[in-house]
Amino acid sequence: YPSEFLMQKITEDNQVPVHLHVSVSLQYVAGLKGRALVEFFHSNIAEVENEELRHLMWSSVLFYKTPSVEVMACVLLSTKAIYFLLDDSFIHADEHQSDFWNKENSDCENSSFHLSCCFLLKLNDLQSVNVGLFDQYFRITGHSADHIVTCLTRDSYSTHTFIQQLMAVLSLLARTPSPEPVDKDFYSEFGSKNTGKMENYELIHSSRVKFIYPNEEEIGDLAFLVAEKMDGLTNLPSLNILLYVLAFQVNHTEGSAQNTSSLQPKTLILTSSDLFLFDEDYISYPLPEFAKEPPKRDKYQLADGRRIRDLDRVLMGYQTYPQALTFVFDDVQNQDLMQNLTLDHFGE
């Protein structure tokens, strides 16, 4: 029986982000409180009788096999596994997923019975956890391509809390100890690292699960990539990335019965001179060990870029988090007005 504090905490965490749409089945889960939520977990989701529910989180998730489909999920962490309770609309989003999901309950589609898929990753199968830049997302990797999931929390606090809870649960696992390391001499220890590339920070947990954090070089690589996209408008040493945040671009679709807005996931990068929107691959990098070829697309693909000097005004909505910002730029694109005026005035 969970403590009152834990039940209160899970109840508080059981809130769907207001800007994301979920199906009826997940709305039912979001309405559960306290003991009803724990009983729902044990009667509908838990694999074994003696596992305990330790943490609950709502997040967008991406699967390695379907990198283009972001879906809302209720993530449940127990002492045995991580469960992803998925929106049922995900199953119909892509015809290529039929092999992945093996959906058999198609006869329920037209009834009032609401079906949810539950994806399970046992803690014993967990190999590594990659934390994204500025804790905006994290990727969980198992032993095959079917067992790689990225949680796009878009929130450093949610990421940090989940990682802490996961480490605590992994500490309870009884795994066979690692073999004793062989003593290395000085030269073999330091002479083999002549690749010139700094490795990411790795923390190997007592359960032998690796927690991998980005290093400063990733920011340097990103700054270099951003400078390339700017067509040499600025010199690289003075380029500083001031902000990196996972956001949504709002696309209004007019003409329908009601003006609706679709949210396109984007990575927003702010430098001292420009504002960029990138399409980022959150699931394929760094390459998993079993990958035989590089991903089909680059990690960062430029979607839009504007100069700060062309920014006319910023409109802020008054709603609570997540905040909506509208950036209004001048119509004149990629033209240095002062330079052109000077040429007209002083030229032949």
From TrEMBL:
Its main location: cytoplasm. It comes from Oriolus oriolus (Eurasian golden oriole). Residues 116-178 form the PLEKHM2 PH domain. The keyword Disulfide bond does not apply. GO terms for molecular function: kinesin binding. InterPro entries: PH_domain-containing_M2, PH_NISCH_C, PH_PLEKHM2. It is found in: Cytoplasm. Residues 241-347 form the Nischarin C-terminal PH domain. This is NISCH protein. It holds the Pfam family PH_PLEKHM2. GO terms for biological process: Golgi organization; lysosome localization; regulation of protein localization. Keywords: Cytoplasm. The gene is Nisch_1. One of its GO terms (cellular component) is endosome membrane.
